[in-house]
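Thread: Newbie trying to understand structure tokens

Hi all, I'm a second-year student working on a class project, and my supervisor (Dr. K.) asked me to get a predicted structure for one chain before our next meeting. I've only ever worked with sequences, so writing a 3D structure as a token string is new to me. If someone could post the tokens and maybe explain what I'm looking at, I'd be very grateful. Here's the chain:
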Amino acid sequence: MDNIFNKISISLIILGIAFYAFAMTFTALIPSILGLLMQVVLFFGRTFPKFHKIFAHVNVLILILGVGATYGSVLDLGSYLFNGNELARPLATIEQFTTFVLCLVGTIMAIQSFINARKS
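---
Reply by user tm_fold:
Sure, no problem. This is what the structure looks like when written as tokens:
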């Protein structure tokens, strides 16, 4: 599970830095902040193996918060694709949608891993 969290968090960090290079606004770094927060939790999970499960659940909580914070971009993008509505901030919408997808995939994979661990 740590491998999945590590890959998702590094992807979020790279995403935020890449979009910051284009937009030059602090809000473009929000995915990077999520990724760094996940890396800190991963570090604590490795440092305190007795509490590894708790830290894994904290990472899932971070991913769920990421999904909740960015689901509006899905609605905006859907409105753009199906109704032809203009995007107010196209670059921000694309970044938020990518963050949404990464967080959603991480959440689903984590839940599947928790279910598989419970079965065995």
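A couple of things are worth pointing out once you decode it. Residues 52-83 form the longest helix (32 residues). The two ends are 15 Å apart (CA to CA). Feel free to ask follow-ups in this thread.
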